Amino acid sequence: AVSAYVAAMVVSRTTSDAVEAIRTDLERTFADMPMVAPRKPQIFRILQQYAVDSPDIGYTQGMNYVAATMVLKFPDREDLARRRFSEAMLQFHGFWSDNFPLLNFGVQLFERLAEMYLQPLWGHLVHSGVEPLSYLPNGWLSLFGKWLPLPAVMESMDLVLECGIRGVLAVTFSVFQIQQHRLMSAKGMEHLLELINQDMRTSPIDGELLVKCARAWLPRVDEALQASCPEELHKMSNNYMSNGWNSQ
Question: Taking each helix axis from N to C terminus, what angle separates 119-127 and 101-117, rounded to the nearest 10 degrees?
Protein backbone atom coordinates (compact mmCIF):
# COMPACT_ATOMS: atom_id res chain seq x y z
CA ALA A 1 0.00 0.00 0.00
CA VAL A 2 1.07 3.56 -0.64
CA SER A 3 0.69 4.27 3.07
CA ALA A 4 3.82 2.22 3.72
CA TYR A 5 5.76 4.61 1.56
CA VAL A 6 4.01 7.70 2.93
CA ALA A 7 5.17 6.76 6.41
CA ALA A 8 8.76 7.13 5.23
CA MET A 9 8.17 10.21 3.12
CA VAL A 10 9.76 13.51 4.14
CA VAL A 11 7.36 16.38 3.50
CA SER A 12 8.12 19.95 4.59
CA ARG A 13 4.91 21.95 4.82
CA THR A 14 6.11 25.10 6.62
CA THR A 15 8.47 27.63 5.04
CA SER A 16 11.11 27.25 7.74
CA ASP A 17 11.08 23.47 7.49
CA ALA A 18 11.24 23.70 3.70
CA VAL A 19 14.28 26.01 3.72
CA GLU A 20 16.20 23.66 5.97
CA ALA A 21 15.21 20.59 3.95
CA ILE A 22 16.08 22.26 0.63
CA ARG A 23 19.53 23.28 1.86
CA THR A 24 20.20 19.75 3.10
CA ASP A 25 19.00 18.09 -0.10
CA LEU A 26 20.89 20.46 -2.41
CA GLU A 27 24.15 19.19 -0.93
CA ARG A 28 23.46 15.78 -2.47
CA THR A 29 21.68 16.83 -5.66
CA PHE A 30 23.76 15.53 -8.60
CA ALA A 31 26.73 15.91 -6.22
CA ASP A 32 29.03 14.16 -8.70
CA MET A 33 28.35 16.75 -11.42
CA PRO A 34 30.57 19.87 -11.15
CA MET A 35 28.23 21.89 -13.37
CA VAL A 36 25.52 21.79 -10.68
CA ALA A 37 27.41 23.52 -7.85
CA PRO A 38 27.40 27.06 -9.32
CA ARG A 39 23.70 26.72 -10.09
CA LYS A 40 22.63 25.88 -6.54
CA PRO A 41 21.51 29.43 -5.67
CA GLN A 42 19.10 29.39 -8.63
CA ILE A 43 17.84 25.93 -7.71
CA PHE A 44 17.33 27.03 -4.11
CA ARG A 45 15.34 30.12 -5.10
CA ILE A 46 13.02 28.11 -7.33
CA LEU A 47 12.33 25.50 -4.66
CA GLN A 48 11.88 28.04 -1.88
CA GLN A 49 9.46 30.12 -3.93
CA TYR A 50 7.43 27.08 -4.85
CA ALA A 51 7.16 26.06 -1.18
CA VAL A 52 5.91 29.56 -0.36
CA ASP A 53 3.46 29.70 -3.25
CA SER A 54 2.14 26.15 -2.73
CA PRO A 55 1.81 25.59 1.03
CA ASP A 56 -0.55 22.64 0.45
CA ILE A 57 2.36 20.78 -1.18
CA GLY A 58 5.37 22.48 0.38
CA TYR A 59 8.71 20.88 -0.39
CA THR A 60 9.25 17.16 -0.81
CA GLN A 61 12.41 15.20 -1.49
CA GLY A 62 12.80 14.62 -5.22
CA MET A 63 11.71 18.11 -6.22
CA ASN A 64 15.35 19.18 -5.88
CA TYR A 65 16.31 16.97 -8.83
CA VAL A 66 13.47 18.33 -10.97
CA ALA A 67 14.44 21.94 -10.22
CA ALA A 68 18.12 21.21 -10.89
CA THR A 69 17.27 19.64 -14.24
CA MET A 70 15.22 22.67 -15.28
CA VAL A 71 17.97 25.10 -14.28
CA LEU A 72 20.53 23.13 -16.26
CA LYS A 73 18.23 22.94 -19.28
CA PHE A 74 17.77 26.72 -19.18
CA PRO A 75 21.00 27.94 -17.52
CA ASP A 76 20.67 31.57 -18.58
CA ARG A 77 16.91 31.87 -18.06
CA GLU A 78 15.97 31.45 -14.42
CA ASP A 79 12.50 32.76 -15.20
CA LEU A 80 11.99 30.04 -17.80
CA ALA A 81 13.45 27.35 -15.54
CA ARG A 82 11.08 28.50 -12.79
CA ARG A 83 8.10 28.37 -15.13
CA ARG A 84 8.96 24.90 -16.44
CA PHE A 85 9.45 23.67 -12.88
CA SER A 86 6.04 25.06 -11.89
CA GLU A 87 4.45 23.37 -14.91
CA ALA A 88 6.05 20.08 -13.92
CA MET A 89 4.71 20.45 -10.38
CA LEU A 90 1.23 21.10 -11.77
CA GLN A 91 1.46 18.14 -14.13
CA PHE A 92 2.66 15.77 -11.40
CA HIS A 93 1.18 17.33 -8.27
CA GLY A 94 -0.40 13.97 -7.47
CA PHE A 95 3.07 12.56 -6.80
CA TRP A 96 3.46 14.93 -3.84
CA SER A 97 -0.02 15.93 -2.66
CA ASP A 98 -1.89 14.32 0.23
CA ASN A 99 -2.41 10.57 -0.17
CA PHE A 100 -0.18 10.59 -3.29
CA PRO A 101 -3.02 9.84 -5.75
CA LEU A 102 -0.88 9.86 -8.91
CA LEU A 103 1.74 7.66 -7.29
CA ASN A 104 -0.95 5.17 -6.30
CA PHE A 105 -2.43 5.26 -9.78
CA GLY A 106 0.95 4.86 -11.48
CA VAL A 107 2.04 1.94 -9.29
CA GLN A 108 -1.10 -0.03 -10.16
CA LEU A 109 -0.56 0.59 -13.87
CA PHE A 110 3.12 -0.32 -13.56
CA GLU A 111 2.29 -3.65 -11.93
CA ARG A 112 -0.23 -4.50 -14.64
CA LEU A 113 2.12 -3.56 -17.49
CA ALA A 114 5.17 -5.25 -15.97
CA GLU A 115 3.26 -8.51 -15.60
CA MET A 116 2.08 -8.24 -19.22
CA TYR A 117 5.26 -7.18 -20.99
CA LEU A 118 8.28 -7.87 -18.74
CA GLN A 119 7.09 -11.07 -17.11
CA PRO A 120 10.51 -12.71 -16.48
CA LEU A 121 11.93 -9.57 -14.87
CA TRP A 122 8.70 -8.88 -12.97
CA GLY A 123 8.71 -12.44 -11.68
CA HIS A 124 12.34 -12.07 -10.60
CA LEU A 125 11.56 -8.88 -8.67
CA VAL A 126 8.50 -10.36 -7.00
CA HIS A 127 10.30 -13.62 -6.15
CA SER A 128 13.13 -11.55 -4.60
CA GLY A 129 10.67 -9.65 -2.42
CA VAL A 130 11.24 -6.33 -4.18
CA GLU A 131 8.02 -4.31 -3.95
CA PRO A 132 7.36 -1.49 -6.45
CA LEU A 133 7.07 1.04 -3.61
CA SER A 134 10.64 0.28 -2.62
CA TYR A 135 11.95 1.73 -5.89
CA LEU A 136 9.30 3.55 -7.97
CA PRO A 137 8.95 6.60 -5.68
CA ASN A 138 12.71 7.10 -5.76
CA GLY A 139 12.67 7.39 -9.53
CA TRP A 140 9.30 9.02 -10.09
CA LEU A 141 9.32 11.75 -7.44
CA SER A 142 12.66 12.95 -8.80
CA LEU A 143 11.44 12.53 -12.40
CA PHE A 144 14.30 10.05 -12.80
CA GLY A 145 16.98 12.26 -11.23
CA LYS A 146 17.72 9.55 -8.67
CA TRP A 147 17.77 6.76 -11.25
CA LEU A 148 19.63 8.09 -14.26
CA PRO A 149 22.81 10.02 -15.06
CA LEU A 150 22.12 13.72 -15.47
CA PRO A 151 22.46 13.79 -19.30
CA ALA A 152 19.86 11.02 -19.59
CA VAL A 153 17.53 12.83 -17.18
CA MET A 154 17.76 15.98 -19.30
CA GLU A 155 17.22 13.97 -22.49
CA SER A 156 14.09 12.26 -21.16
CA MET A 157 12.53 15.28 -19.42
CA ASP A 158 10.76 16.63 -22.52
CA LEU A 159 9.04 13.29 -23.13
CA VAL A 160 8.03 13.00 -19.48
CA LEU A 161 6.50 16.47 -19.45
CA GLU A 162 4.90 16.04 -22.86
CA CYS A 163 3.15 12.79 -21.96
CA GLY A 164 2.58 13.03 -18.20
CA ILE A 165 2.09 9.77 -16.33
CA ARG A 166 2.15 7.93 -19.67
CA GLY A 167 5.65 9.31 -20.25
CA VAL A 168 6.77 8.38 -16.75
CA LEU A 169 5.61 4.81 -17.28
CA ALA A 170 7.18 4.64 -20.74
CA VAL A 171 10.56 5.89 -19.50
CA THR A 172 10.37 3.52 -16.54
CA PHE A 173 9.85 0.51 -18.79
CA SER A 174 12.56 1.76 -21.13
CA VAL A 175 15.00 1.88 -18.21
CA PHE A 176 14.04 -1.58 -17.01
CA GLN A 177 14.24 -3.02 -20.52
CA ILE A 178 17.71 -1.55 -21.08
CA GLN A 179 18.87 -2.72 -17.64
CA GLN A 180 17.07 -6.06 -17.79
CA HIS A 181 20.19 -8.24 -18.05
CA ARG A 182 21.83 -6.58 -15.04
CA LEU A 183 18.63 -6.80 -13.03
CA MET A 184 18.05 -10.45 -13.88
CA SER A 185 21.64 -11.20 -12.81
CA ALA A 186 21.22 -9.48 -9.43
CA LYS A 187 20.49 -11.87 -6.58
CA GLY A 188 18.41 -10.93 -3.59
CA MET A 189 16.38 -7.93 -2.53
CA GLU A 190 19.30 -5.88 -1.21
CA HIS A 191 21.35 -6.27 -4.38
CA LEU A 192 18.40 -5.43 -6.63
CA LEU A 193 17.44 -2.30 -4.68
CA GLU A 194 21.04 -1.13 -4.60
CA LEU A 195 21.23 -1.55 -8.37
CA ILE A 196 17.93 0.26 -9.06
CA ASN A 197 18.14 3.05 -6.51
CA GLN A 198 21.87 3.75 -6.55
CA ASP A 199 24.02 2.06 -9.19
CA MET A 200 21.89 2.90 -12.24
CA ARG A 201 22.43 6.64 -11.72
CA THR A 202 26.20 6.26 -12.02
CA SER A 203 26.08 3.87 -14.98
CA PRO A 204 26.37 5.35 -18.49
CA ILE A 205 23.19 5.16 -20.54
CA ASP A 206 22.42 6.53 -23.99
CA GLY A 207 19.76 9.19 -23.46
CA GLU A 208 18.66 9.17 -27.10
CA LEU A 209 18.25 5.39 -27.02
CA LEU A 210 16.33 5.69 -23.76
CA VAL A 211 13.85 8.15 -25.27
CA LYS A 212 13.51 6.15 -28.49
CA CYS A 213 12.75 3.04 -26.47
CA ALA A 214 10.32 4.96 -24.27
CA ARG A 215 8.37 6.20 -27.29
CA ALA A 216 8.08 2.60 -28.46
CA TRP A 217 6.51 1.77 -25.08
CA LEU A 218 3.84 4.48 -25.30
CA PRO A 219 1.36 2.46 -27.43
CA ARG A 220 1.54 -0.40 -24.93
CA VAL A 221 0.92 1.99 -22.06
CA ASP A 222 -2.05 3.49 -23.89
CA GLU A 223 -3.44 0.08 -24.78
CA ALA A 224 -3.24 -1.06 -21.18
CA LEU A 225 -4.94 2.11 -20.02
CA GLN A 226 -7.80 1.65 -22.45
CA ALA A 227 -8.22 -2.12 -22.21
CA SER A 228 -7.57 -3.23 -18.66
CA CYS A 229 -8.06 -0.36 -16.21
CA PRO A 230 -10.85 -0.75 -13.67
CA GLU A 231 -13.49 1.97 -13.94
CA GLU A 232 -12.01 4.16 -11.24
CA LEU A 233 -8.52 3.96 -12.76
CA HIS A 234 -9.94 4.76 -16.18
CA LYS A 235 -11.47 7.96 -14.81
CA MET A 236 -8.14 8.95 -13.24
CA SER A 237 -6.24 8.17 -16.43
CA ASN A 238 -8.52 10.45 -18.42
CA ASN A 239 -7.92 13.25 -15.95
CA TYR A 240 -4.16 12.89 -15.96
CA MET A 241 -3.81 12.15 -19.67
CA SER A 242 -5.83 15.26 -20.56
CA ASN A 243 -3.59 17.44 -18.40
CA GLY A 244 -0.97 17.75 -21.14
CA TRP A 245 2.21 19.76 -20.84
CA ASN A 246 2.43 22.80 -23.11
CA SER A 247 6.00 23.39 -24.18
CA GLN A 248 5.21 26.61 -25.98
Answer: 120
Look up residue 244 and give its amino acid.
G
Which pTM was predicted? 0.84
Q: Closest by alpha carbon to 223, among 118, 116, 123?
A: 116
pLDDT by residue for the chain (248 residues), tens only, comes to 454 554 455 555 556 678 888 999 898 888 888 888 999 999 999 999 998 888 888 888 889 999 999 999 998 898 899 999 999 998 998 888 777 888 988 998 999 999 999 999 999 999 999 999 999 999 999 999 999 998 999 999 999 999 999 999 999 999 999 999 999 999 899 999 998 988 888 888 888 999 999 999 999 998 888 875 555 445 544 554 444 433 33
How far is Cα 164 from Cα 23, in angstroms, rounded to an integer?
28
Nearest to 109 by CA among 159, 170, 33, 185: 170
143-155 burial code (b ≥16 CB/10 A, e <16): bbbbbbbbebbbb
| Range 197-229 burial, b when 16+ CB lie within 10 A, else e | beebbeeebebeebbebbeebbeebbebbeeeb
